[in-house]
Amino acid sequence: MSRIRPQVELFEKNKPRQARAKRTYDNILLAAAELLVEVGVERISTNLIAEHAGITVPALYRYFPNKYAVLYALGAALMDLQNQIFESWQERHFSAGGAGALMENIEELLLETHRATRNQVGGHEITQALRAVQPLQELRQQSHALIGQRFCEVAAHALGREPDEEMTIHATITVDTFYSLVELALNDGPIPAEGLLRHGGRMIQLYWQDVIEQAGSPV
Amino acid sequence: MSRIRPQVELFEKNKPRQARAKRTYDNILLAAAELLVEVGVERISTNLIAEHAGITVPALYRYFPNKYAVLYALGAALMDLQNQIFESWQERHFSAGGAGALMENIEELLLETHRATRNQVGGHEITQALRAVQPLQELRQQSHALIGQRFCEVAAHALGREPDEEMTIHATITVDTFYSLVELALNDGPIPAEGLLRHGGRMIQLYWQDVIEQAGSPV
DNA sequence: TGTACATCAGTGAACGCGCGTTCACTGATGTAC
DNA sequence: TGTACATCAGTGAACGCGCGTTCACTGATGTAC
After folding, report:
1. What total of structural domains would you count in chain B?
2. Given Cys at both, which of B16, B100, B144, B170 links B22, Cβ 3.0 to 4.6 Å?
3. Is B165 at the interface with chain A, CB within 8 A?
């Protein structure tokens, strides 16, 4: 059942050193993001990206070994962005009111993550690609694992327990549901994103209230 | 921001009429499912599918206009399966105990859906492709919309209310979270699927308990 | 029951195309003196 | 400040390959009489 890993090189080759090169590099990423929106992951190619970025293909190969490396860079940037949003949210509220304050402000984090991803060119498409394209999946998993671990530690500490397997389950569900809600809200369907995120945030809150009650110790 | 629809023909051409043809047809779908596992959605091609199915490429083109139509058929079959599981679950419990019984048995539906998808060859990969590959997205959306509508109607009726926008939000979140949990459990990570689905089911239950309490009317 | 015929199913060969990738090269930028 | 040189950045041209797709064809299956 486990997939054969195709061993694709994902890391960048030459780093841009001059200002001109930096512009080219950024153009490549922007063009790739735009093409992700226009044609989708299945149709994207190095040829298309280079053409769209206004350079020739060998110029792209100067910085990236293949198209997956370009997508990987895009995905990594998005995951970094989301991680940063989480970090600053956590610091802001945890220092002010501990674990309880975090839970009260889940909706805020949902809204901020949603807004930031929506404002990123191709943010939604990159998010989707991170789920489906094999060489990118680890990026998403790493990011979610990191955030999940934070959740787990904070929650375990607040409850005066060890971060055991059950706490890991709670954290995993929370993080996964969180980002699934953001993804759901990114679909421009008939339902406004705010409503989805408000009620979705409430669902996560209720879940943790229950965890606390089951544990029988207040925050 | 909206993607340019590439207008891909997705429907099958000739239906198999003879037993031999039916076998060929099934082999194509099975080969495609296996390749989805082996090489992923980005690398799959009609050539590869035909070779894997033990036929020549024109034989594949007899039944499908392109590779997306093959994936579409796979996706449609999976959505049908999940819909059927939902239908029979709903009939079973709703007739026995109304809306309350449905909520009490969410975990059962999670487990059944998870098991069925896992047992389907390439079930996980098809699920992922349904999110990311543009021509397949509507399949997932349609299926979820259908199930969401059922949820919405049942819930509104149980609460003695109209299926208004808020109820639609509740139903949409429920269905999306539900299938995200199934997808999460399909990842063969360190956490056993059962634990994720049990606690995930509990989260959805708590969410609806809250909806009922807020509405101020018992089920 | 046999056979001629119609339809269904699958093949071999060929095509043009865009893909990924590499090469030797020209041009741009930075810097040592 | 000027210029020679080193390094960085990007180009034009070419390649082999697998892709999607189509064609006229052969072989298999079903059926009318």
Report:
1. 2
2. B16
3. yes
